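Exam review. A common question shows you a sequence with its structure tokens and asks you to describe the fold in words. Practice with the pair below. Do the first one on your own.
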Amino acid sequence: MRADSRQTDLFATQPDLFAAAEQEDDPDRAAYVEELRGQLHAKLAHVQAAQGLPWRDLTATTLEELSFHSLAKSYLPESESLPLRRAFNREMLRIYEIVNDVPLFPDL
């Protein structure tokens, strides 16, 4: 059986598919991160103003929490991400205590 000469070498070196995503000096990335930063701060303000679940139900709230933490951790420097995520967690704990009508962590 003869090998087809048009078939590519499956074991040849491949360019790094993630190299472009790691470039911090990309102006498009910088603009995206700045827009994302504004969205995260707006979401934190939304949660701070809430007196109950800030989204339509527990599933939507959970998805928003996961999204907030993932985006903050992935795109912001740790020195900015960590305090932002902690503030968000404090507010979500406050909201869950309101919704459940019981302190979840009374010693905090």
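Now try the second one, then compare your answer with the model answer below.
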Amino acid sequence: MAFVLLKSFSNYVDANIALGVLQQEGINCHLEDEHIVTLINMASGIRLMVHHSQLDRASAILRETAKPLCPECGGEMVIPGEEEPEKRRSVLKSLRALFKKTAPDHTTYRCVNCGRKFDLSS
């Protein structure tokens, strides 16, 4: 079987989330160098490898499930924005929102890194 590189990750969590999403969709894939990168910081990162025959489908799945990036700091840790700041979501709901596979039904987000609120429709 010939496997090809789909994407490299700098951290274990994001790599395993992407791996799980693809495997749930029936994509034949695996991670390379995940244990080494966890121990030492390698420039190549953790490599998500997919079977060459499923590369296009796997790429499309990751594009569909990609989280929006913060326009201020470029951070990937964004959660759905709240209508009223004083109403905080529970930790469980926030984690669910971070790793939600389907597209959300709203367009307002808040960056966990810098706190900026932004709207995807603009």
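Model answer, second protein: Residues 83-89 have pLDDT under 50 and may be disordered. The beta strands are 3-9, 29-32, 46-51, 78-80, 108-111, 117-119. Full marks require stating both points clearly.
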